[in-house]
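check these tokens.
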Amino acid sequence: MVAFADTGFIASLYLEESTSQAADAALGTKRIPLPLTPLAALELRNAFNRAVQRQRITAAQRDALWQDVEADIASGFLVLTPVPADELHHKARQLSDRYTPTLGTRSLDLLHVAAALGLQAKVFFSFDDRQRKAAASEGLKVKP
């Protein structure tokens, strides 16, 4: 995979967010495949469920959004991509020592950056400032 997107970026492609237009623009018309790790799939489903809880969408709309995700998996835009947990957590611990004391990165931020590095991504899509700084410091090209 040449690119990796954190869950917030992916969620912006499905939910109406303040970042949705920027996410669409960053990907352009020719969308490159993006890995969907087990963590990102869980977080994405949870984001949809939180939108239901906050009454931003209905349960039926959540189900329709998930069908859109499944269609994007079937089309190859999202690629279900397992990441070995031991390697992922080991790398995230290293990143924690390197970046959390200065950037205040959160565990999930570090797990996404670690996954991107483990998958040898070159581009990292995210709107999270701390995560973007850590990814850029690791040599990833950060967008948007």
In short: The mean pLDDT is 97. Residues 85-103 form the longest helix (19 residues).
